[in-house]
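Question: what's this shape?

___
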Amino acid sequence: MSPYVAPVISSETLPEAADVVIIGGGIIGASAAWHLARRGISVALCEKGVIGGEQSSRNWGYCRQQGRDPAELPLIRESMRQWETMATDLGEDVGYRCTGVHYLAADAAGMKRFEDFMPHARTHGLDTRLLSKTEAAEALPGAARVWAGGMVTPSDGRAEPALAAPAIARAAQRAGAAVLTNCAVRGLERAAGRISGVVTERGTIATQTVLLAGGAWSSLFCRSLGIDLPQLTVRSSVMRTRGGPDVTHGGAWTPKFALRRRLDGGCTIAHGGLSSADITADSFRYFLDFLPILKDEWRSTRLAIGRRFLESLKQKRTWALDAPTVFEDQRVLDPRPVAATLEAAWRDLVAVLPDFANVEIAERWAGYIDTTPDAVPVISPVASLPGFFIATGFSGHGFGIGPGAGRLAGEVVIGAEPCVDPAPFALSRLRGARG
């Protein structure tokens, strides 16, 4: 089922024109709209469903620097700067709390991965430090097991996914952006080899500049334009409790379970190392692109074939822009959570923290994570289509990095001085990219 997400009242009027049209109202698209609108750029943000309705409200809620790919570290540093002042900047609380996030290692191999991250932490000035066995035990008081050690970055934190993207979108509206919900974009109009307009279900917006921040939908939309974007989706299952023992003020990750304290007093809980990948036609289309990461992650990914595979075989590559499309047929991706994965996480959580045994599970849900072959996002222009830009493929890292990614995407779109070097996020770096 879909978890709660704070409502955003749609702008009433479809603008006739905009300097920039953003497709997708997750935290990346909302942040880009906010940063652009504050610069005086006229922006139209088009979301086929509700703001933050997909993975932006379905993630764990970590705002973390530690454990990231080194390419992302400058961008998460910018994001953390924004998270720290967001309540003041937006005028409303999005649940951000600077609490640290503890990573705990089950064995020496786990500690080795934490140790390998430390040179990157030092290079980028993070306050990350390794934890001894004793310190790891103190991170989860009352745990019925001994950890090999751990890692923590005290300046990391947590926020509420249900609140963040909607609050940023509302701030974008107040800054002058048109935020249009239940307004699917069907495609683009072109003139002289360049974008001339965005065709929505409510009409056409004249523009020469488009930012696609479509999450799990990005590859499909790109394909309709003749652009090959190697991207697959991973299904992540999550649950929340009604109340629970106060074992962490922030977040704690272990190989078997992950948890985060919530503003409502409960906990968000997921499996620490297991997700599902639904096999689709794209799984074969991009098999060679994803083969290296699949070799590394096969133990933590369960492959499943079912209805989505059959649906993908029927999916058209192009479609008419004067009739409803798949984007209107499926307003919000709302996959079923994988019961076995959540049951395994709960068993391990209760085995380690017995005080959870009688805590009520209030809700379960799942979401589709947009992933790239190297698990690093794409924030990039598309060479074959002047005026078209992409911000997608955040590979499960998008919530925490969202504010900085939105700012960078906006700067790339308008050719402003970027807050960080965008080169590591170029579309051209991906082996199978074409367009």
